[in-house]
Amino acid sequence: MEKPMRKQRQDEEASDEDSGPDERDLNAPPTEEKQLEMLYDPAADDADEKWVQKHLGADIKTDAVLNCPSCFTPLSYACQRHEKFQNQFRAIFVLNCLIDRSTSLIYNEETQEHLSAAPPGTPSDQVYFNVSCAHCGERVGVVDSEEIFVFYNVFPSR
Ligand SMILES: [Zn+2]
């Protein structure tokens, strides 16, 4: 009794595949979401590349060239302007910058309240350090524990 029943079920499934609505869905062009998934390359697991993509987007592009406001030494050629604060920039590739790691600071990017000493026990991912121009010593910004620089005292140019 079992064998004929199983065969009948197979026949039904086979006929469904021939004209069922499911097959049409499978042949439909991929949705936009699917296409985006296909563009993602899981083999690109280089840590630096991922980090750059996470923080700067897929393309490294810059909103400005940042210079020291005092001596005009270039500080970064690849930065992102803050969405709200036009005088604030984020960068990971910097030059001519000195980091003062002797004092841990807390800094609030949203309110731009900055440069108060970090109380003991502050999580390391909330600690910032002063950054100054290596040429003249002007304070130009801060850097966080992930080496993301936040410049708030710079002269932007292109
Ligand atoms: Zn300077």
TrEMBL record:
Region: Disordered, residue numbers: 1-37
Basic and acidic residues biased stretches: 1-12, 21-36
Positions of transmembrane segments: none
Protein name per the record: E2f-associated phosphoprotein
UniProt source species: Paratrimastix pyriformis
